[in-house]
Amino acid sequence: MQSFFKTNWIHSLWLILLFAGSLVGETVTPKDRLIVETLIRLNRFDVSGNEKWKGAVQRYARSQRGEEGYFELVEQFSVEAELPELLRLVEEDPTSALSAKSVQLIFRLGEQKKLSRLLSGSPKKKANAIITLIGFVKTPEAQKLLDEHKALSAPATSVAKGAPALISTADDIKALAARTGNVKQGKVVFQKFCFACHKAGDLGLDFGPGLSEIGSKLPKSELLLAIVKPNAGISFDYEGWTVETKQGSFLAGIVSESDEELTVRMVGGVSQKVKKADIAKRTKMKASLMPEGLHLAMSEMELVDLVEFLSSLRTR
Ligand code: HEC
Q: How many angstroms does the Cα of residue 284 sit away from the middle of ligand 1?
C-alpha cells in the first residue's frame, strides 16, 4: 500500500512537471513522444509540411541529446534545429566519437558551410582534427570543403616530427615489428586516429572490422602492413561503395541490401537507407575505406606503441 502511494505521488509530480514544461513550449511532452513513435512506425520522416509534427520531432530530438538513439533520430527526420548542437559537439572535442557522427550528419543536412566557418575559426590543432573527420566523409562536397580549406590556409595538415618515412620496404616493416612499444600510450594513439572506425573492447565505433581480438589474428608485421598499406588487401564485406540517388544525394560507405532497399553504413556508425528504386548509380570504390597515410601523422614511437596496443588485444 505504502509503495503504491509513493509511486503514485512521484507519477503525479512527473505529470505536473511535464505540464509545466509544455506551457513553456520547450520540454518534450508524452504526446510528442507518441507522435514521434507513430511517425517512425509509419516510416513518415518528412515532417516539413506539418508544423505540429515538426514541433514534436524537434522537442523530442532535443530531449534525446546524449542518449543512445539521438543521432539516428536527427538523421531520420533531418532535424535541422539540432545543427547548433552538432556543431557544439564538434567544437567541444573533435577527437570524440560523437564528433565523427556529428560531422557526418552535418553533411547529410547539407550544412557543411557551417563546418567551414568552424574550421577557419579554430586553433590549428582543433582544425586538423576536424579536417580528419571531414576526410572520412568521402563525398564530393567533403572533398570540395577540404580543397577550399587547403587553399586558404597554406599547409593544412602538418606532418608530425620524426614521422616514419614512407615505410616502403619489407625490411622497414620487419624492423618496426621487432620493436616493443607501450600499450598504454598505444591506446591513446588509437583514440586519436582509429576510434572513428574501429571498435577495440569498449573503445571506438563500429564501422570497419572489430579489432577486439586482432592481436590473436595478425602478427605485428601484418598489423603494420594493414595500417601503412590499407589498399593492399581489403577485407571482404568491408568494401566501399558510392551511391548516387535520383534526388541527387551522394553517399559513401559499406553497403548491405535487402530486396527493396540498400543500407549505407558511414563512418561514425550512422546508417542511411535508400530505396532501390531511388538509386541512380552505384559504384564500388577501388580504394579501401580506411584512409592511406594515417601513420604519416604519427611519430615513429606512436606507431610502435599503437602496434603494441593492437597486439595486446587478444582472445581470453
Ligand atoms: C575511415 C575509417 C577508418 C579509419 C580511420 C581506420 N580504419 Fe582500419 N579499416 C577500415 C576499414 C573499412 C577496414 C576494412 C577494409 C580494409 O581491409 O581495407 C579496415 C581494416 C583494418 C585492419 C584489418 C582488419 C582485419 O581484420 O584484417 C586493421 C588492422 C586496421 N584497419 C587498423 C586500423 C588502425 C590501427 C587505425 C588507426 C591508425 C585504423 N584502422 C583507422 C576503416 C578505417
A: 18
How many Å apart are CA 196 and CA 99, to the nearest integer? 9
153 confidence band (pLDDT: 50, 70, 90): low
Q: Whose CA is nearest to atom 5 of ligand 1?
A: 194
Any domain includes 49: yes
Asked whether residue 130 falls in the same domain as residue 98, the answer is yes
Asked, for residue 158, whether it belongs to a domain, the answer is: no
* Burial (CB count within 10 angstroms: exposed 0-12, middle 13-18, buried 19+), residue 218: middle
Q: Would you say 62 and 21 are in contact if contact means Cβ atoms under 8 Å apart?
A: no
Taking only the tens place, the pLDDT of each residue in 162-202 is: 444 456 678 888 999 999 999 999 999 998 889 888 999 98
CATH code (residue 203): 1.10.760.10
Our answer on whether the CB atom of 289 is closer than 6 Å to any ligand 1 atom is: yes
First to last CA, the chain: 49
Indicate whether 239 pLDDT > 50.
Answer: yes
Is 160 inside any structural domain? Answer: no
The number of the ligand 1 atom at minimal distance from the alpha carbon of 231 is: 18
Main-chain phi, psi angles of 287, to 5 degrees: -90, 160
Task: Please work out whether the CB of residue 235 comes within 6 Å of at least one atom of ligand 1.
Answer: yes
Lowest mean pLDDT across 104-118, 227-241, 301-315: 227-241
What's the domain count of the chain? Answer: 3
Q: Please indicate whether residue 142, judged by its CB atom, sits closer than 6 Å to ligand 1.
A: no
- Which residues form the domain of 248? 241-284
State the distance from the centre of ligand 1 to the C-alpha of 209, rounded, in angstroms. 7
Report the percentage of the chain scoring pLDDT > 70.
Answer: 86
Q: How many residues does the chain have?
A: 316
Residue 296 has pLDDT above 80, yes or no: no
Residue with the smallest CA separation from ligand 1 atom 43 is 290
* 161 within domain boundaries: no
Distance 148 CA to ligand 1 centre (A): 27
Tell me, yes or no, whether 93 and 202 share the same domain: no
